[in-house]
Every structure is written in structure tokens, then in C-alpha cells.
Amino acid sequence: MIVYLLACTDVEKGSPAANPDTHVLVVGAGMAGLTAARVLHDAGVSVTVIEARDRIGGRTWTADVGPAKVDLGAAWLHGVNGNPVADFADANGLSYEEENFRWSTLYDEASDTQLGDSGWEQIEDAYDSFENALPRLKANLGDTDVMAARSRWLSDEGYVGTEARLAMFAVDQWMVELEYAGPVDQVGLEEFWEERELSGGEHLPTGGYVGVVDALAEGLDIALERPVTEVRAEADGVELVAGGERFVGTHTIVTVPVGVLRAGSISFSPGLSADRLAALDRLDMGNLEKVVLVWDRKWWDGNIEFVAAENSGRFPEFYDLTELAGAPTLAGLYGGRFSREVQAGWSDEEIVADVLDVLGAATGETPPSPSYSTVTHWTTDPYTQGSYVYLPAGASSDDLAALAEPEGERVLFAGEATEPAYYGNVHAAVMSGIREAQRLGVESIDVPGWEEW
Ligand SMILES: Cc1cc2nc3c(=O)[nH]c(=O)nc-3n(C[C@H](O)[C@H](O)[C@H](O)COP(=O)(O)OP(=O)(O)OC[C@H]3O[C@@H](n4cnc5c(N)ncnc54)[C@H](O)[C@@H]3O)c2cc1C
């Protein structure tokens, strides 16, 4: 009784969280689901997390690639001021380090040359120039895709030859396909570059995201390897079918990615609202993917950027993770159009072989065979179906707001794509988990680091 009274001090009187009969079923043990579960659990609410995979963390996944520990999903904290991930880490004895990657190699495939410092300057100038031109391009072109705006800007600026290739690289790769992850000819112009950013600089969690994930999950009731296929809401509760098993509760918080909702692999009864279905139809998942290669010895110099002819996006960026991962490691990132092509049919062996080809061209050395390699497949993974949400032409952040709306009183939603200002990030997922715990009545949060949220 005393325990219950103490717990009640944190929750709104008369809310679901204040009712001792409340049992919340959280679908998905990614950052949004773990956050919602952690906040509710620490406010004294009974919670079960139901996860499809045999691991927690979702799109945060610190894996062993041979001796190297590497984040195969999210790696960065994009800004630490006002970031609930940083606040949680600070309060729970977890550290993160300022990112200090420095670009070294810049290779232009079309001219088969190293471009050096002047190439970097041209890329940075083009980046700034496109950023400055955006308001004018938006006013003139209206609701179209970023590629249309980039083409207009290229001809307005009169870029030609290598300069034009570098300008295309700055926009298509740096600003769009490695950032929003969607194809540049589909990412919408209207709200492009307008989502909110956190200040404080780019950081990397020490030892990877696994530290944060494990600390969040500590003590929670989590059922693994239970893919939810049915969510039924009745007048007095909810029933979920997951991996052939029935779970009964009073409320559910569904945190699965937009790709999973769009695929229709979970059936909802009653059916999803017309607003949510229309929003899901307009939205899409980007396709950022990683290739991680580990060697016995470091054979290259610094980071590598690759400017392909026609700007195809063929493995455009590599980070040297040797210090962070504890072994000689390069992580390649690619997204957008090229990623869709690769993920549609290349084998892992073909991907690694092509990456080695790119690295050989960019460095002028023949790379030795890696001792270990891992290739991600977020795009075809049934529990993600892409990397993170982006706004295609015709969609808007109102669609993300529509995804945050509950369906009736018992079926709630969280996840990065339900956070209209910060979508696509780990902090968006965490913010959405906090939001839904608050919706159920948690008033003052007991989780160390989140007392002020
Ligand atoms: C390659 C890559 C790089 C990224 N880099 C960064 C970065 O550097 N910094 C950053 O801030 N963000 C980054 N992100 C984005 C970030 O990872 C996500 O925004 C965030 O982790 C999403 O969390 P979530 O809880 O919303 O979704 P998820 O992590 O996807 O969690 C949803 C969970 O639901 C589970 N699930 C799915 N279907 C079912 C089902 N039917 N039944 C039960 N469970 C189900 C999934 O397995 C998953 O565990 C990156 C993402 C990718 C893919």
C-alpha cells in the first residue's frame, strides 16, 4: 500500500497511470518503446514490452564485427543540448565523446583524380550556396523534389565539369542521400532542411549505443522473438497476438517503424483511421545502409570520400573507426538511389567486392582482403523496411503529427516518425516514448536524467 501511494505521487489523478489495474503492452524494444516502458515502469505502472527480434535496441545495434564493436544502426548523438539521450547518459554514468573525424581523401571517379583541399572547399562552398538558395528555390518551384531544385540551382550558378560534379555531390550525397537517406529525386523540397536541430555538436556514445539501450532496459519485462501480427482494441482493454501467443492489457503503445505499418504486417481492429492511412501513404522510409570492414592492420590514411561520375552515390563515404572500434575498421555509408539498387539484389559478397574496388580506386592501393565484414540490410529487414522516415514530395510534417495521434483511448503510437520536429533520430524516438508515457498520465518522471521533461 505504501509503495502504491508513493508511486501515485508521480501520476495524474484519475489517469490510466494512476489505476493499479493498468497494464501497458509496448510493441517494439527500440529506443521509443524502451523509453516509454522505462518511464511507465518507474512511475509504478505495469508494463510488458513485446519485441519481434531476438535482441533489443531496434535501429540502435552495437554488434561485434570480429574484434571490432560497431554501431550498425544509429551511431551519433546529433547535438547534446536538450537531447534526452545525453541527459540519460549523463545521469546514468554513461559517457559520449565529441566526434573528431577529419576528411582526408577525396577521389573523383570521373576524372580518376584525387581532388585534395581545393575539392573539399568547392564541396563546402556548393553546400553553403545551395543552402542559401533554398528559400528562393522553394518559392519558385513549390511542391517538388530536391533534385528538381538542385538542377535549377546548378544551371542558375552555371557550374560545369568537375565543379558541377562536386556541387551535385554536395547536394545529392552530403545533404540528401546520406542525411535524409531517401532518393534525391523523391525527397520533398517543401520542408527540406527545416527540421529542428539540437546544438552542442556531434558526439558518439563510448562503446556504442548498447550502453544506453541496456541501461534503459534494465529490470523491464521484455518478451523477445514475438512479432506482433494483430492488435485488437475492445471497450475494456487490448489483446495482441504475437508469435502465436496472446497478450492482454489495458493499453498498447505501438512503436514499430513506418515501413512496418506501411507493409500492413500488423492487422488492427478496429482498422486504422483514414488520417493515419493517408499519412502512411504519403510518407516513405529512407535507405541508409552500412558496410563494415575489419582488417588485421590499418592500410589506409584517414577518412575517405568518393565522388562518383554522374554522382551515382556508389559507396560515397567511409569513416575510420579504428580508434573507436578497437581494431582497424572502416565503415562505409550509402543511401538513397544507389542503396535501393544494391539492396534490391546484390549479394553481400558483391557488395564487399565493389566496396574494395571503390577503396582501391580512392586510395590508389589494392586493399588486402578484410578479415571480417558485415553488411546491413535495414531496407529489406521485415521489422524496419528502411532506415528512417523522410518526407517525399506531397508529404509534410503534419503527416508525422497524424502518426502521433492515438486510435481511441487504448491504442497509442510512438517512434521516431511520430516526432514532427526531430524525426529520423534517436532523440526523436526517445522524445516520443516520453510523450506517450505522459499521455497515459505520468506527470513527473522518475528516470534519472529526465526529471525535467
Ligand atoms: C543505418 C542507420 C544509421 C542511423 N544513424 C543515426 C545516428 O547516427 N543518430 C541518430 O540519432 N539516429 C540515427 N539513425 C536513426 C535511429 O536509429 C532511429 O531513428 C531510432 O533508433 C528509431 O527508434 P524507434 O524506437 O523509433 O524504432 P526502432 O528502433 O525501429 O524500434 C522499433 C522496434 O519494433 C520492433 N518491431 C518491428 N515490428 C514488430 C512487430 N511486428 N512486433 C514486435 N516488434 C516489432 C523492431 O524490431 C524494433 O526493435 C540511424 C538509423 C539507421 C538505420
Give a description of the structure:
Helix 4 (116-141) crosses helix 5, helix 4 packs across helix 6 (161-177) and helix 5 runs antiparallel to helix 6 (161-177). The chain has a seven-stranded mixed β-sheet with strand order 8-7-18-19-20-17-21, with helices on both faces. The protein has a five-stranded parallel β-sheet with strand order 10-2-1-14-23, covered by helices on one side. The protein is an alpha/beta fold. The protein is built from 14 helices and 23 strands. Residues 1-8 have low confidence and may be disordered. It has helices spanning 2-8, 31-42, 84-91, 116-141, 146-157, 161-177, 210-217, 258-263, 274-282, 322-325, 336-343, 348-363, 397-404, 426-439; strands at residues 23-27, 46-50, 62-65, 68-71, 77-78, 96-98, 103-108, 113-114, 202-205, 222-223, 228-234, 237-242, 245-249, 251-254, 267-269, 284-285, 289-294, 303-307, 317-320, 329-334, 372-375, 389-390, 411-413. The radius of gyration is 23 Å and the shape is globular. A hairpin with a 2-residue loop joins strand 3 and strand 4 (68-71). The protein folds into two domains: 2-58 and 209-284 and 392-439, FAD/NAD(P)-binding domain (3-Layer(bba) Sandwich), CATH 3.50.50; 62-101 and 200-206 and 286-375, Polyamine Oxidase, Chain A, domain 2 (Alpha-Beta Complex). The relative contact order is 0.20. The structure holds flavin-adenine dinucleotide (FAD). Flavin-adenine dinucleotide binds next to helix 2 and helix 14.
